[in-house]
């Protein structure tokens, strides 16, 4: 690479691919985590409704269980925001490292 524009052009194509792959991976991780929480929540609610129908818990106990689960899901959603920011920071830092390394390689 003889000049800065060549470096930018070459690095740009590779950087786009890195970003694309990283973001797809992050989306799949978030999707998997959300699916787990949704499935677990559905299973718990189904179980609690069966217990209420059988008379093993009353409506107040059911409401308490549902409210507790609601708080768990809200907590999960709050942590997802923090997790997403951390994941994006990791992608950004990886991209910066990639660009710096490419620049250093072209200089040395």
List keywords for this structure.
108 residues, mainly alpha, rod-shaped
Secondary-structure blueprint:
Blueprint: H1 4-54, H2 59-107
Helix pairs in contact: 1-2
Give unreliable regions as ranges: none
Number of E-state strands: 0
Instruction: Give the structural class.
Output: mainly alpha
- The percentage helix is over 70%
* Distance N to C terminus: 11 Å
- In N-to-C order, the SSE pattern is HH
What does this entry look like structurally?
This protein has 108 residues and is mainly α. It has one domain. It is built from two helices and no strands. The longest helix is centred in the first third of the chain and has 51 residues, at 4-54.
Structure summarized in a few sentences:
This protein has 2 helices and no strands.
């Amino acid at each position: 690479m003889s000049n800065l524009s060549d470096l930018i052009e070459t690095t740009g194509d590779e950087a786009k691919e890195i970003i694309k792959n990283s973001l797809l991976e992050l989306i799949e991780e978030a999707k998997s985590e959300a699916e787990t929480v949704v499935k677990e929540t559905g299973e718990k609610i189904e179980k609690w409704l069966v217990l209420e129908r059988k008379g093993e818990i009353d409506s107040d106990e059911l409401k308490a269980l549902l409210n507790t689960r609601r708080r768990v899901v809200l907590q999960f959603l709050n942590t997802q925001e923090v997790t997403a920011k951390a994941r994006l920071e990791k992608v950004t830092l990886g991209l910066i490292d990639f660009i710096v390394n490419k620049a250093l390689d072209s200089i040395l």
